[in-house]
Amino acid sequence: MDALPPENLYPYTVSRPIYSNPTFEEDNERQAREERTLRERLSCTCGSVWTRQALKVVKGVFPVIDWLSRYPIREWLPSDVVSGVSTGLVCSLQGLAYALLVSVAPVYGLYSAFFPILTYFLLGTSRHISVGPFPVTCLMVGSVVLTLAPDDHFLLPGNGTGVNGTEADGIAFLPIQVVMGLLQVGFLVRYLSDPLVGGFTTAAAFHVLISQLKIVLSVPTNNHSGCFSILYTLIDVFTNIRQTNRADLVAGLLTIVIVMAVKEVNSKFRHKIPVPIPIEVIVTVFAAGISYATELESRYGASLVHSIPRGFAPAQPPNTELLWNILGSSFSTAVVGYAVAVSVAKVYAAKHDYTIDGNQELIAFGFSNVFCGCFSGFVASTALSRTAVQESTGGKSQMAGIISAVMVMIVILALGNLLEPLQKSVLAAIVVANLKGMFMQVTEVPTLWRQNRADCFIWLATCLASVVLGLDVGLLAGLVFEMGTVVALSFYNLAKLKFVVHLTFDMQVGFDSVRVFKKRNKALKKIHKLIKKGKLRATEVSLGVDNKGFESEQDSGRESGQVEDGDWPVPEVEVRVDWALELPVRVSVPKVQIHSLVLDFSAVSFLDVVAAKSLRLVIKEFLRIGVNVYIAGCDDEIVRKMEALAFFDEEVTRDLLFLSVHDAILFIKLETANGSMQDAMVEGVRDPEIKCLTAIMLSVIHPRLSAHP
């Protein structure tokens, strides 16, 4: 061992009495040593390790065990009940309506609105999404249904359209999502870029609109699927337009106008209205009552829902003979359903500061669809409007989902027959009224054209291909076009002799910024509760400087504010904590040993819309835990691209850009020396570091390949 230099040698003195063993034992109590055999020691050590690992695995497979054990009943249950009741009513009506897209009897829509919720409650990781039928996947399943079981083979008695779903429900049994989840291939959804998904869902909205047009008009048409199906359906509609049933047309148009108008009111006054007006429910009840009272079917020939049998269909095994016939369609439906659900789940996870597990979501939706298929249901995902209702009415967890399932069950067991006089044009109109959000994506095209023409072409190509060729082939064509665009851009970038290295933030900085933020919120919440109960006092002098300022006090007289949304504490007096020291509560908060992060963009040659959004989100995630982020070495083209993509805002400003890494480091050191570094969250960190990451992947060839913390 090398000797220490002279300046590191310090004299020290140890003073104590001279001890013999008996004398030492008299002054100090001797601890009896427990003698254990090697087998006992191994058993104890391995047993505790295996127990912890087993518990971790079980919680990973069944996330409900983790969050339900910590469920704050008093704070969350009332909100979840209100949200569950509201969402359950909407879910029931949408289930009935979306069954028309699948070309099956409406009761199968109720089954599909009930069973998937049960399994997702146990296996899902999102607290806010409402699981059930989604128009796009319903239409994709419907095209398979019509291919395998044409209407002229399986007409339902007294019902002009729809097939007996038992023969075509095989698509729900194919556990593609489960297999994908077990293989940990959730990352593949990143190849479905925002422009591609936007173009595809807009095209799907056109397909849904045309498919429901014939029901609103109540004109006879042949069922078409595949290439040019929209054109063929329109030809049939206009050929038989003179056979339009006026009662159905009036009911459908009134429903569309009323539902869309009230939804606009809900959206405009969402901060003033405690619970959104359940307009679908109100319209459906009134329409059913009017139809029953005026005998629309016998007098005007209106097309009614007719039979909605009470109770559940018996469970049955899958029809394995259909599996190979629906393999391709099942895969595309599984991917689309998963992509939409995860996209929506990520939006609300970011809003409420928690994370979701993409692979676990695949497993959750896979088992939900298999379970639902066993009871004659069809594929489930999530509907944007229904999830918005669940979150906006105060839903805090999937407990709201279970309560909504109870509402659907009540409809299935007791109230379904009351809706039998309902006109099918009303259900079709409800479907059409809920397409507004997907149609509004068209307004993104001019913005994409200004920001990134490659993404604009991807949007347009995917939309056009999906409209003309059908949803299955159109999605594949859009994906091929997108990958071709990526290859073309890659060759263009290679021609400029610039290279990109794939790095992830978590691997480089040593911590997960989202996890740090969650843990800090949890600690702050407990600290505020202790302050409110009078068990802890935060002195004015020590706020935000030293955790020693927290004192145990039975009657401090200081109270904190209430907890908003069950997650974020809002105290009357801001309590700023030194996260580097020991906390007065039992929460393991990861240490953040850096105060600044410098991203070297000198090798970056391309930036698109999704990359800019991802990079801005990552920067904000670091800023909120007190880590300043700087970007160095951007050339003028990248800076102009950032401006075109609206990259900068009030938080992410141009001030974070520097000519070189050296300039950024000198600026950070100067700010630190002057004591002006904006670092409220980590004031007490001793000897903080500056991290510099070179050639971040978020900058490059294609952002869908990036790993996001």
TrEMBL record:
Subcellular location: Membrane
Entry keyword set: Membrane, Transmembrane, Transmembrane helix
Residue intervals of the STAS domain: 597-668
InterPro entries, A to Z: S04_transporter_CS, SLC26A/SulP_dom, SLC26A/SulP_fam, STAS_dom, STAS_dom_sf
GO molecular function: secondary active sulfate transmembrane transporter activity
SUPFAM superfamilies from the UniProt entry: SpoIIaa-like
Gene3D superfamilies referenced in this protein's UniProt entry, alphabetically: STAS domain (3.30.750.24)
Main location: membrane
Membrane topology value: Multi-pass membrane protein
Keyword match Transmembrane helix: yes
Bilayer-spanning residue ranges: 96-123, 130-150, 170-189, 277-294, 322-350, 362-380, 400-419, 457-479
GO-annotated cellular components: membrane
Family annotation (Pfam families): STAS, Sulfate_transp
Protein name (Swiss-Prot/TrEMBL): Solute carrier family 26 member 4
Gene: slc26a4
